[in-house]
Amino acid sequence: MSKVVIIGGGASGLMAAYSASRNKNNTVILLEKNGECGKKLNICGKGRGNITNIADTKDFILAFGQNGKFLYSVFSQFSNNDLINLLNENGLQTIVERGGRVFPKSEIARDVTALFINQIKDVVNIKYGVQASGLFALDNIIKGVKVKGGIIKCDKVIIATGGKSYPKTGSTGDGYTFAKSVGHNISKISPSICPILCYDEWIKEVAGLSLKNVELSFYCKDKLIKSEFGEMLFTHTGISGPIVLTVSKYISEIEDYKNINLSLDLKPALSRGDLYKKLTNEFKSNIIIKNYFNTILPKSLAKIFPQLCNLNPDKKVNIITKEEKYQIIDSIKKLSFSFKSLAPIEEAIVTKGGVDIKEINPKTMESKIVKGLYFCGECIDIDAKTGGYNLQAAFSTGYVAGKLAE
Ligand SMILES: Cc1cc2nc3c(=O)[nH]c(=O)nc-3n(C[C@H](O)[C@H](O)[C@H](O)COP(=O)(O)OP(=O)(O)OC[C@H]3O[C@@H](n4cnc5c(N)ncnc54)[C@H](O)[C@@H]3O)c2cc1C
Q1: How far apart, in whole angstroms, are the C-alpha atoms of residue 347 and residue 213?
Q2: Residue 253: is its pLDDT beyond 90?
């Protein structure tokens, strides 16, 4: 018989509470500092909740990059199929979209939170508005959780406090402080899956413009690291949108930002040769170049495109030279951005870094330092690309932590 306190009622904490409460010998308390559980889960996938992915285990592990192997055992104990079955069996149907992304059929992420609350409400003591302030451990054995006005004594504690991004949802990095206080190392915290900030002043002039069917490439020391095809968006400070968020995950893995180059292919379906032929054909008329760009590019981009190609906007296309044609082709196929940094962690979808995985038993999620202390979700040093992988990791680690195995 164990008395368990779970700190945090996000995706991982809700699942840990579900898993722990299945053992009728456990008394389970869930502390959530907000007035409701799952604030972040509710806004996932723009409120539609990309809860997992149908990728196989190998691709799942790869999606997490360097630390992915840590999750092998966890995914074998509770996989994407297990999550989908659990949801389906409890009345929440799912759909699969582009790239294997899985969503609730209702397209309402909040339904997932509601399902878990419904599952645990009669068997778990959910304490809303209660913030844990620290851990109580003696001789490296967990004894309780500090809260305002005292200590909740218990035999097991699961830290499910999330990362540091989107702090308004409640994830303010408290778990890192708790883990550190009992001897855990926290690997460097930084943003991942986030907008990219650029120095280029011209970007401000196209802020709000979104582009479809373009390809963003990220180079480090002139070596291509990642190309991503799809949609993106210009902001007042840089670039964002699906392909930018994906590429940012790869940038977050680079130590030194000095050698980063980003370039955009505005017409990936056309080769340079195709474009040369197209321009040669279409440059027979006597329209001026800025008007020509209006025919092949969105208006706001067309307006500044002569400047990006170093061309006089009023020059007639029929006197454009061969060299100038190549300048245009370069700008269309390799429009470069001057990388400044990733956006601040507050704007990131996930936090990179966290509780050092070397100090957590990958089979149980128990701390290797403090007996009876478990971790799950984003507070652990694991983060994946977009596609539902991060939520699956939160659910899988939550499920395994909730088993409270030693
Ligand atoms: C805008 C956005 C969209 C996203 N979309 C997706 C998506 O579609 N698919 C996907 O896979 N991932 C997505 N993610 C990432 C995903 O939401 C997270 O990885 C996941 O929610 C992490 O779950 P968690 O349980 O570890 O942490 P969280 O969901 O952050 O939950 C932590 C909980 O702990 C509580 N808490 C913290 N400290 C304390 C304390 N001291 N005492 C009591 N309670 C505390 C917090 O209030 C919070 O409720 C998205 C993230 C964002 C920000």
Answers
A1: 25
A2: no
